[in-house]
């Protein structure tokens, strides 16, 4: 058994969001989702199985991880140990090449890189689909980070999750798109982790059902836009879908409010840019940051405009990223 391997994976930003589960134990989403993998947000992870270790170890960006993160990683490694029929503990070393400590969701790139590195180190030969299903068990969005470019996640129907995986979507738009990422609040840790927050939304929000019912139509429209190479249609759907996801969370009791004043100021700037004829559509996840879908030609102008918004602490342009890969 190769006992050590290193893998790199890119984060992704959903254009049609995953927000709600049909099975929490198996981490199966209640609806599909669609994302763009981002080349500027990379996690590199090394997994070394070592018979001398009494328990798993996890180092994130050079420092020992919090117990909760170690426990989640250990539980994930247990899935791989069960498949490989080994009991050896592992040392996991992971670093994020993100725009500073932005507080951007790194669980997608993190669990995708961990799935690829750990299976390789354990000597398992997994197909991309198997890796996607494995990564999903660490974090729903990680299933999408196995692939580069535009990616579709299938909710599936099977109780065991065997039809719940991501797949790449080929579109000529991949050569034209950019994502401009505006960090709000200096990367302070988020108030509500997505896992608990989506569960709380599903349990208490009167708008949750309406949100879930809307997703299939948004997925169909986004896939239509990708097939037609229509950036404006894709952006329009992405912004509306993100706002609908946040509306469901805002209506939870008590409310889940990810936005800060600068989030709204950035949203207003994106609308103003659009009114002046620019290609710019916003999306937000489980935090205050604003990511703006735009074209390669307009990315610099959009970034300059967003940098001028008070409260935007850092603005980065990212192109599409490639699939998760083994490096050594
Ligand atoms: O993969 P999780 O459990 O961190 O959930 C991701 C949730 C969102 O980022 C808000 C939406 C998405 O589809 O990525």
> What is the chain-wise order of helices and strands?
EEEEEEHEHHEEEHHHHEEHEE
Number of strand elements:
14
Give the count of helical stretches.
Answer: 8
CATH architecture of the largest domain: 2-Layer Sandwich
Small ligands present: (3R)-3-hydroxy-3-methyl-5-(phosphonooxy)pentanoic acid
User: Low-confidence parts lasting 5 or more residues at pLDDT below 50?
Assistant: none
Count structural domains. 2
Q: What share of residues are in beta strands?
A: 25-35%
| Assembly status | single chain
Plain-language structure description:
- The protein has 328 residues and is an alpha+beta fold.
- The protein has two domains: 4-171, Ribosomal Protein S5, domain 2 (2-Layer Sandwich), CATH 3.30.230.10; 173-318, 2-Layer Sandwich (Alpha-Beta Plaits), CATH 3.30.70.
- Helix content is 37%, strand content 25%.
- The protein contains eight helices and 14 strands.
- The mean pLDDT is 95.
- It binds (3R)-3-hydroxy-3-methyl-5-(phosphonooxy)pentanoic acid.
Task: Summarize the topology.
Elements: E1 4-16, E2 21-23, E3 28-29, E4 33-49, E5 57-60, E6 63-64, H1 67-84, E7 90-97, H2 107-121, H3 128-138, E8 150-153, E9 166-169, E10 177-184, H4 194-204, H5 208-228, H6 231-250, H7 261-275, E11 281-283, E12 290-295, H8 299-307, E13 312-318, E14 325-326
Parallel strand pairs: 5-7
Antiparallel strand pairs: 1-4, 1-14, 2-3, 4-7, 4-8, 5-6, 8-9, 10-12, 10-13, 11-12
Bound molecules: (3R)-3-hydroxy-3-methyl-5-(phosphonooxy)pentanoic acid.
Residues 14, 17-19, 33, 105, 107-108, 139-141, 194-195, 285-286 line the site of (3R)-3-hydroxy-3-methyl-5-(phosphonooxy)pentanoic acid.
